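As practice, study what follows.
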Amino acid sequence: MVLMKWSEDLSVHISEIDEQHKNLINLINSLHEAMLERKGKEIMGDILDKLAAYTVYHFSTEEKYMNQFEYIGLLSHKKEHDAFVSKVESFIADYQANKLGISMEVMSFLKNWVSNHIKGTDKKYSETFQKNGLI
């Protein structure tokens, strides 16, 4: 069962970033599938680690272009990224300490945050990036 599906309303119309968003969605779906199948802690932990690492990689790509193109919303956008990374790191720490299981609440947070962030915050930089030659 897929938790998130890529759709055109998630596109920021920058191919590199759209591909990264698709990869994030795939990682969230992998975590969701592992949760539903009650995979072991090691497998779930590995997926969480991959999700955290890929998120940092993806955010650094966006922020690189924001810096390069002097995007006016960089600081507030970076704050959202930093808050998300902290939240995911907190999930991982609690999961590893057996304080938290991967639940539908966690999955809903991931799905909603990524979807809302792309549709709201990320779409705001599309025009700036495109004016600077990214497509």
The first helix runs from residue 15 to 36. The mean pLDDT is 95. The chain has one domain: 23-131.
